[in-house]
Automatic annotation (TrEMBL):
Signal peptide limits: none
Keyword entries, A-Z: Hydrolase
SUPFAM superfamilies attached to this UniProt entry: Metallo-hydrolase/oxidoreductase
Superkingdom: Bacteria
GO molecular function, one term: hydrolase activity
The keyword Magnesium belongs to this UniProt entry's keyword annotation: no
Protein name: MBL fold metallo-hydrolase
Native source species: Tissierella pigra
Residue ranges of every copy of the Metallo-beta-lactamase domain listed in the record: 23-229
């Protein structure tokens, strides 16, 4: 499905089969000599067919395009190799661009075996082989044109500034058109669903990073915020306020759970409320166990870093408890 969302800007709805996100909003800014595509969909036939059918409806040849990837997740970057093989310029932030290429190596995914023990997910028999990021990511590295905040891309009458918005991933970036008050935000801000803020390592407090990025965008003058999933947002300050309230509630929920005593990441996750069609955590699909545990871990680490919790490593598993 192709929808015109602004002058010379179109949204291609790329269906994501067997995924709770349902679809990716791939945006196309149509220019006279070149067009810019923002994000792709998974590296699987249904997504490839959907994106290229949309480009056909817009009468755009892939050779006349450039690709901008907002962040590393496979539903955004999965088709990059198709563009690489056609000699198309592919923009990405350096942090996530490097991670996208690392994801083509088995050593990247072997870290998930360490996380499985750390999170106490071994008893759930989870495996990274069922993770959509593993199944539908690139299979070989690509050469990116790295682009950072302070740089820009001209397409037709639009000039897009690159904006750093880390949190959902360590190197998430977006595009801001100041004159028309447009912002392409990837998964930074979503409506009706909340972006997954997962655990990326102990190097930084990723939830605090996300809060800072939300505060940064709150002050921007935006009329149309174009997210990668669900509906276009016309009042970004309202949605940011709601997202901050959601995470505050999540943090309070975890503190309440830990009043019952110390717990592993897995057991905190299992007691949290999730909007998923399952009777219990045991019934979650394996990919959703990964995402839920990663989000619980990000919140636990935030509470630890802000002095609310103790933690210790016990037989390879992280144990958290109230101070």
């Amino acid at each position: 499905m192709v929808t015109k969302v602004y002058e010379n800007i179109y949204m291609i709805e790329v269906v994501l089969p067997e995924n709770p996100l349902k679809a990716l909003n791939s945006y196309v800014i149509k220019g006279k000599n070149k067009s810019l595509i923002i994000d792709t969909g998974f590296n699987r036939k249904e997504c490839i067919d959907g994106l290229f059918q949309g480009l056909k409806e817009l009468d755009i040849n892939i050779e006349d395009t450039e690709l901008f990837i907002t962040h590393l997740h496979a539903d955004h970057s999965g088709m990059a190799s198709i563009f690489k093989d056609r000699g198309i310029k592919i923009y990405a932030g350096e942090i996530d661009g490097r991670l996208i290429n690392e994801m083509t190596s088995m050593s990247y995914w072997e870290r998930f075996e360490e996380f499985k023990v750390l999170f106490d997910l071994e008893r759930d028999r989870v495996t990274f082989s069922e993770h959509p990021g593993y199944k539908y990511c690139l299979k070989e590295p690509v050469e990116f044109t790295y682009i950072s905040e302070g740089k820009g891309i001209q397409v037709g009458n639009y000039f897009f500034e690159v904006i750093d918005i880390p949190g959902h991933t360590p190197g998430h970036i977006g595009l801001y058109e100041r004159n028309h008050k447009l912002f392409f935000c990837g998964d930074h801000i979503l409506d009706r669903i909340t972006p997954n803020i997962g655990f990326w390592g102990f190097e930084e407090n990723i939830l605090a990073v996300y809060f800072n990025s939300l505060a940064k965008i709150y002050s921007y003058d935006i009329d149309y915020l174009f997210p990668s999933h669900r509906n276009i947002i016309r009042d970004h300050t309202r949605r940011i306020t709601e997202l901050l309230a959601h995470h505050k509630e999540r943090l309070g929920e975890i503190l309440y759970i830990l009043e019952s005593g110390e717990s592993t990441v897995r057991d905190v996750t299992a007691r949290m409320e999730w909007k998923i069609r399952a009777n219990s955590f045991e019934d979650f699909p394996i990919p959703q166990k990964w995402f839920a545990a990663g989000e619980a871990m990000a919140h636990l680490e935030y509470l630890y870093c802000t002095g609310k919790l103790y933690k210790e490593l016990r037989e390879g598993k992280l144990i958290y408890k109230l101070k």
